[in-house]
Amino acid sequence: MARTVRRSENALAVTLHEDEQLVFDALANADDEPSVAAASGLSLAQVRHLVERLAMMGAVVFTSAATAEDGLAESDEDVVALGPVMRARINELYSTLDSVDYYTLLGVNRAATQADIRRAYHKLAPEFHPDRYFRKNLGEYKNKIEKVFARVTKAHDTLRYKKRRRAYDDSASNQPPDSAPRAAPEPSDQGSAASDAAAGRRQAQTHPHAPPSVSPAGRAVVEAHGAEAMARTRRLRRAALARKLGAGRGADHRKRRPESEDSGYQSIAGVEQSAAERLREHFDEAGRRARDRRAERFVRDGDRAVDQGDFAGAHEAYTNALELRPGDDMLSAKIDEMGQKVAK
Length: 344
Description:
Blueprint (H helix, E strand, L loop, with lengths): L4 E3 L10 H9 L6 H8 L3 H14 L2 E3 L11 H6 L4 H13 L5 H5 L7 H15 L12 H19 L2 H9 L18 H18 L9 H32 L3 H5 L5 H47 L3 H14 L4 H15 L1
Antiparallel strand pairs: 1-2
């Protein structure tokens, strides 16, 4: 007897993809997988895979189990508790782990934003989370699933943070296997200048609106000059603020002359330092309030997602809130809870 399935009462709170919606609609007039396959035009293996995904999201529930007569031989189930579609997907990803970069693995391009990377991870990770296969006999697929999940998680943790992503992009490990970097001799100062000039001319011809190419040494000089200019600007602003605060003390203060140049310099320096400290405290407090407001919005988004049954969205919202409120035990507990529900 084929296993039977029906639509769940909580299905309205779930967002479905095209194939999932097709199977879900077919269940309105069918209650077993072979009938759904006939009505939707999909293969029986595809229907089983999509029904399992719908069941994981809470959109459908099983009312009876499948037997060997349904095309799933009991001997095969005893060996590996995975459907043929899932086994093929695991084998496909596992075989490419050493040949694709993190962007390809997550299914995003190199211009993807942090939000794009988070969405790709939350879509892919639950499919290979080891907790989903708890107490199931997976055979050789157990090791493959663990390695795929570990690599997907590492890709997310690397690309989500700017410094790690920049280091990964600059490294040779993210290059395609057939384009290994070639070692180049260290150029002399003259050679470096000439090569930089040639590179700048080539870039100007190819991309007339692009910024000129700068060597690492030249970039360091530019950054140093930029930092010095910014520091000088900050000093001038603080001095102007100190003069303004000093002028606000009244005419008597303006008429009073310092006993020496040193004492006058120390007085101005003290006012300047005090004003800078007050400004710093003001901006720190404003930043803290802004972070709190953003964290509250993420928490509300997570609570709404929980009410709608979107545990993956709630997990993402609570994670964003925890980044703004590090050390919040309540948010950490919610993230753990959502992670367990997504993995089921």
